Amino acid sequence: MDPILAADLERFPELLADARDRAVRALAGLATRPVGVPPTMPEPAALPVEGVGAEGAAARFHQRWEPGFSGSAGPRYLGFVTGGTTPAALVGDWLTGTYDQNAVSAQDSSAAELERETVRWLGELFGLGGHHRGAFVSGATMSNFTGLAIAREWAGERIGVSPAESGAGALGDVPVLSGSPHSTIYKALSMLGLGRGAVRLVPTLPDREAVDVDRLEAALAGLDGRPAIVVANAGTVNSVDFDDLRAIAELRERFPFWLHVDGAFGAFAALSPAHAHLVEGIDQADSVCVDLHKWLNVPYDSAVQFSTRPDLQVRIFQNSAAYLGLPGENPDFVHLTPESSRRLRALPAWFALTAYGSAGHREIVERTVHLARFLGERVAELPGLRMLAPVRFNVVCFTLEDDPTEAAVAALAHALAETGELFLTPTVYKGVPALRAAFSNWRTTEQDVERVVEAIARVRA
What we know:
Radius of gyration: 23 Å
Number of helices: 15
CATH class of the largest domain: Alpha Beta
Strand content: 5-15%
CATH architecture of the largest domain: 3-Layer(aba) Sandwich
């Protein structure tokens, strides 16, 4: 054994204790760490020939790279839709690395059964029925990709071909109808060979991002019975608008289409009695995307996909090798998702659900929705700013009152980030450049919102 590696093995408990102490200091410093940090590049370093051991590597990391890491785990990081990591989820994540289980196969471990239990719990959490089966993937992009891959195979089944066997070209044109599709839908369609151009935008309701169901019905009628894919939204990016999922599902009585629901973070409305009506009908979807490193507040690289056709899923993703075995009635995850090896992503989610239950996560959802509305009220009072959409759920979308050009809005975002007090991401809503503040971090409080408002006011002064 390499002598440096052998020395680290001898000191393993001490090294882990040091990592634990460094993590404690990092988390304790979130209140003062800049929320956003301009990227910097240290002097390039050569590939080490002789290593310095784990302790030396930690020292170099904390000297060269750690100062450039943002406080994205903290309560005032409101860019994208980013949760933090709850204590239980972090414990689960550390143990994920410790046990290093590859859950794609059930041959050597109970890890796959833990994932199945976690998926079942999540299905209950989001109001999905027993007819939905699921698996963990890396994020919303791969969840949407997996759902649309099954939709592609379903479309082939309707006309007697299998794209998984013959290629996407055997399908011809498959229309993908949606009112406000997320960018990952286009990315997934590109990877699947259906093409970004397959998207046919359906008009939305006036001053909304929700699809006009009557216009969707007319678009489906115009297809003359051709199979299609409908991508519905349970929470749009800019204003967290929700399509009428039940009304869309009812259209399947007359038109053949696969219903994919992108509920990356909006599916969490199911947890709150005051908002559950927003996702009524999600149980009628053929496939559903939910991103867990958002509102479930588990570490990055965690999402779940659900579908009602695991048979088609196996047809697409089966990995036929003698050492893996054939997919049976309860196929291993290696036959259900793109990856043939992956970490046990389910463990942090299992820890979070076990530690805090549905009630604890409902509190996180309801509190952060309240905080979004609180910020919306305060922003509306600030001179020189205007709201672009009502705060329907957990996102505040606003812009400059006068001349909101892309450059001016980007300059405001940069100035806010330079304060170190908050981080927001730019967007475009109904053609208007804007900023959006997304709430999903379990740490965020009213005091944090006050700090955000004060920082915005100082920059605008």
